[in-house]
From TrEMBL:
It comes from Gymnopilus dilepis. This is F-box domain-containing protein. It comes from the Eukaryota.
Length: 490
């Protein structure tokens, strides 16, 4: 009987299906995917062409983007839903996310330093994601720069509102979804009768991204949601915005938490705070966090309040008088030494970085229901002994920025900003992360400028790889650590 003869067909990259090839490449490291574009072998030009085209597939970069997002604390935001992003835009943003992580720890010089004009009284704020730089003016106006542009230009977001005021600006965005974000604008104006006393106005704006149909460029459009007269009559110390809550306090005044969604239109009078501190609380800094948490820094302890058990909006007639709370007693805290909150998906916690007079610490709060909080109380953990003299801070994401003799901290990097034109990047991972504490390191970077740094604190956005600082009196600088052409080792 004749036996069937099965002749095997040789399998190579040219014979397997396109879908299978894309699936294989999607599982590679991003640097390996970039290498596929650099393979040029004359004897295998057809194969090189197939690999090059496959490495540019949308499915490949969508897989890389999702993997990069899932491995980080916090998420970068896209101005449009992923499904509406062009292939080139998706690849560019994924590469920025991936290369920024590599370049923070690199010993190479910074990739790009761009200078933008500024006025000394401008108050700067970088929106999470690193694309939009906001500047509040002394007239109550807000302008913005699109840092993704090669040559960013100033555009008006909110027009002039006063002849002269002292503004403060912060933002809040839901990184779990694309779409509008919110900004809180606090403006203090002196009455003219007594220096140091005046009135305060707090405004909440929704900011959306629109596409200009004429040239397909992105622009921001702001819509005022509410405004109210603040309770303080002195200059603002701290402003925090998270979800439907805004909190602030002025010099020698109470801490106030306002449920801004319960205030309709412009309410100069007739509103009630959700919660307020006693007059003698001696608070030095604060931050709101997801889950209606409020963190207060006092001289020798931290107070953590849970405001989730709030009154019904229709019966807001008086502030909350009691709520769940925790107290952590630790060494003296410097002023302005708390980062913004960071949500850690892997541990389901909200985290802050703080600095005492000696060390760098992390504050870990449970994220979830009240029962979760009862079983998992807040933790205060040491991240690293302070390697530099530390004072006031501003916050970023995993890195941070500061003024002379100060550091702005976040999770898990910090950037010290001496009075000279030098940056010191400090890496301080958390105890539950790999290689702690051996991963700690410090890096010095020279920045072009005249050393004039005293009016504005540098800002940082770790995921985009950007730092904004003021190395000179007449301009600000945007440092870009992410590379447009990522490094690929041989």
């Amino acid at each position: 009987m004749d036996h069937l003869q099965l002749q095997a067909t040789p399998t190579n990259l040219l014979t397997i299906s396109h879908d299978l090839l894309i699936e294989i490449i999607s599982r590679l490291d991003w640097q390996d995917i970039v290498r596929l574009r650099q393979i040029i072998t004359p004897a295998y030009m057809q194969t090189c062409h197939v690999l090059h085209n496959a490495s540019k597939s949308r499915a490949v970069w969508l897989s890389l983007y999702e993997r990069a997002q899932s491995s980080r604390v916090g998420k970068t935001r896209l101005e449009t839903p992923v499904e509406l992003c062009t292939d080139d835009d998706l690849e560019l943003r994924t590469l920025r996310l991936l290369t920024s992580e590599v370049c923070w720890d690199s010993e190479d010089p910074i990739g790009i330093q761009r200078n933008l004009p500024r006025k000394t009284e401008d108050v700067l704020h970088i929106v999470e994601g690193g694309r939009w730089l906001l500047a509040a003016k002394s007239t109550g106006s807000v302008v913005y720069y699109d840092l993704d542009e090669e040559d960013p230009s100033e555009r008006v977001l909110i027009p002039d509102q006063f002849e002269e005021c002292l503004p403060t600006l912060t933002s809040d965005s839901d990184a779990s979804k694309e779409g509008p974000f919110h900004i809180a604008l606090h403006m203090y104006t002196e009455s003219g009768r007594s220096a140091g006393f005046g009135q305060t106005i707090v405004q909440i704006w929704q900011v959306a991204v629109q596409v200009d149909s004429s040239d397909l460029s992105f622009q921001l459009v702001a819509t005022k949601l509410t405004s109210f007269r603040g309770t303080g009559q002195r200059m603002l110390m701290t402003l925090s915005l998270c979800g439907d809550l805004v909190s602030y306090f002025s010099v020698f005044s109470r801490v106030v938490v306002v449920e801004w969604t319960s205030i309709e239109g412009d309410s100069m009078l007739g509103w009630t705070p959700l919660w307020q501190s006693s007059e003698d609380a001696k608070t030095y800094n604060l931050s709101l966090a997801s889950g209606s948490k409020l963190v207060l820094l006092h001289l020798e302890h931290i107070s953590i309040l849970d405001l989730s058990d709030r009154h019904d909006k229709s019966t807001h007639s008086r502030p909350m008088t009691s709520c769940a709370s925790w107290v952590i007693k630790e060494p003296i805290f410097y002023l302005d030494t708390i980062s913004r909150p960071f949500f850690s998906r892997g541990t389901n916690t909200v985290r802050f970085v703080l600095v005492t007079n000696l060390d760098i610490y992390g504050l870990i709060l449970p994220f979830g229901t009240r029962s979760d909080q009862d079983t998992s109380p807040p933790q205060f953990v040491k991240l690293q002994g302070s390697p530099v003299h530390i004072g006031g801070l501003t916050h970023g994401y995993h890195y941070s920025v500061a003024h002379p003799y100060s550091v702005a901290l976040s999770h898990p990097y910090s950037v010290a900003h001496p009075e000279s034109s030098e940056l010191v990047i400090i890496n301080h991972p958390w105890p539950d992360e790999p290689d702690w504490p051996s991963k700690w390191k410090m890096r010095h970077i020279d920045v072009a400028g005249d050393g004039w740094t005293r009016t504005l604190k540098p800002l940082i956005d770790e995921l985009s790889g950007r730092i904004v600082l003021t190395p000179a009196q007449e301009y600000l600088s945007v440092l870009d650590f992410a590379l447009t052409k990522p490094p690929v080792s041989n």
